[in-house]
Fold this protein.
Amino acid sequence: TAFYADLVSRIRAIFSDASITTDIMVGFAGETEDEFKKSLKFAKDIGFARAHIFAYSRRSGTVAAGLKNQVSNAQKQTRAHLMAEATKQTETKFLNSQIGGTFPVLFEKQENGIAEGYTPNYTRVICKTEKVLAGQILDVLIESVKEDYDNYPVEEITHGSAYCVMVKGAAVHNKGIKCRLEHHKCDGATTAFALE
């Protein structure tokens, strides 16, 4: 863990907005409560921008299935929940750290008035707009955190304005960062925000 923490520290020293992501398995055979607590603390200390959490699933015929001290399903689910909660907090902290920053977004595709793209740290952006943004790189200024995407009022699209959503991961969740596009090819202000 010391090597990994040092590596992350060195990456962040060079790329301050680096999005450090990971997969974390909990409840592997023999995992003690103390070991889990150390893993939980390590995940918090690293401050992952996103993490996929899953519980170990015993599979017959594998070496791991025959190991002693299997963790109960109830313990595995509890640990997975605790780890998911911890990494959701680090994800929110990461998004908050982006406030006030301007990042280029490469819009890759556009369908039915929705343009999608990514920032350099692989934060997904969805933008509702009538303008053709696909194939363009536009700067996004992140302004604030937004709690509820579904009830966010969509402003009228005028003078090149667009409505954008930055999304962490493949699915839209319930927290985000409000931002706007600033680019010489866009006329007028653009309302947007980033979601976890």
